[in-house]
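Minutes, project check-in
Item: structure for the 194-residue chain
Input as provided by the requester:
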Amino acid sequence: MSKALTTLLFSCILFSLSVSSYAQTCKSYSFSSNRVYASCQDLPVLNAFLHYNYSSSANTLDIAYRVTGVTTSNWISWAINPNGQQMAGSQALVAFQNSSGHIRAFTSSVASTNIATLSESSLSFVVSNLSGSYLNGEMTIFATLALNSGMSTVNQVWQVGPVSGDTPQSHDTSSSAANMRSVGTFNLLDGTTI
């Protein structure tokens, strides 16, 4: 086989592998930690996916929020906003890899959009089993949320931003940024989004 043909074949294989990693869907994904989620959403921007189990009788939402194509210099966040489809008022789950190489996962109540960083604070609902992981350009937040009784539709907000030192910094807020389109209404019963 000629060197040019070998190079072309190798390039095609690499291209195929890279395209398939960006063409992931949540339904084709399996967690290595033996976690199983009955439902999932391919979120429309930021290479993000939401895997979840919702129990209407227990008012709990067990989630895995997963983002592909990130680095250890990024933070990720998934939030419920009881006030609307916006960042201000969001009740957020945040994760990033700190300088010692460990994933730091915490909750942050986002009071306004005029903040330089996400600070750890309590949410308006109880969060348990909060953890995170980072492997091969993929970061995930795992958590169980105790929702208010009868809450079956929520406003969701998801984000990715830069980390400086051990501090999450403000994400891109330009009008054309994907971060400004990462909101939606989510029906927990049937999985539909608006």
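Outcome recorded: Residues 131 and 142 are 5 Å apart (CA to CA).
No further action items on this chain.
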